[in-house]
Amino acid sequence: MSSFPYPTAVSRDDFAPTQEEFDADAFLYTHHRYASLDSLLKDLKRLSDVLNDELLNLVNVNYAEFIRLGKSIDGGLDVVNSIQVEVRRFSKQLHAINANLKSCSQTVKDLIAARQRLLSLKTSIKLCCVLNDHVTNFQTLLNLDMDTANDESLLQHLKNLTSLYLSFSHLFGVVSDTHGDVVFVNKVLRDKIMSCKFEFNAYLDEVSQTTLRHRTKAPEIILELLNIYKITGREASMIRLAKR
After folding, report:
1. Who has greater pLDDT, 9 or 102?
2. pLDDT (tens digit per residue) in 140-182
3. How far apart are CA 108 and CA 169, in angstroms?
4. Cβ-count burial of 175 within 10 angstroms (0-12 exposed, 13-18 middle, 19+ buried)?
């Protein structure tokens, strides 16, 4: 036995969101086909009034919250502006400090480079002084009169000359490689050293000829001469003198 159909009032639950598109005809037929038109209009008007009141209350509450938020933001703008001013000032100071650091860094680099140049110049001066002393001592020793010297003195004299010769030759090579642009080296020492080498070779030839003519000379002198010719790269000159 079927129950008698009673009309039902329209409520907000009837309009719960669904995945399907709202169909008014299907909605009325399914839920309210037994209700009169006046009843449906009254229910819809009542529901509309309730929703309008709720919406108005919601707007009023949110508007009050919006006003409070605006006031809080308005009060915070001064703080934000103050922070922005400080940040800009700090940024300018930071850029200035960075520029000063770069300038100081470049100054330090320039000072280090200048110090290196001074140290190099100091080393060059020391080497040139030592080299000049060796050349001067060599020239003084070379000009000594050894014609009447005994074999022992002549032997020591040759050793001293050879030692100085090797010393200033080595120093001159070092100075030329590392400080070849020094005017004193190119204009003064180079000519003096070339002259000393030429005079030393001539002196060796003279002593060798004298020694070979006088066979009574100590063999140590001949051996020393052979050694000197060898280390100076002039063995052929010694052989040529011996054949005369």
Report:
1. 102
2. 998 888 777 788 888 899 999 999 999 988 888 888 777 666 7
3. 38
4. buried
Q: DSSP assignment of 167-186, as one string? A: HHHHHHHHHHHHHTT-HHII
Domain count, the chain: 1
Whether 135 and 192 have beta carbons less than 8 Å apart is answered as yes
* C-beta separation of 135 from 195 below 8 A: no
Look at residue 122 and tell me if it is in a domain: yes
Query: Average pLDDT in the 116-135 region?
Result: 86
Domain span at residue 176 reads 118-243
**pTM of structure:** 0.53
Give residues with Cβ within 8 angstroms of 124, minimum separation 6: 175, 178, 179, 182
Domain contains 5: no
Q: Is 35 helix (H, G, I), strand (E, B) or coil?
A: coil
- Percent of all residues in the chain with a pLDDT value above 90, rounded to a whole number: 8
Instruction: Identify the CA nearest to 180 among candidates 169, 192, 172.
Output: 172
- Return the sign of the alpha-carbon dihedral for residues 224, 225, 228, 234: negative
| In a domain? residue 212 | yes
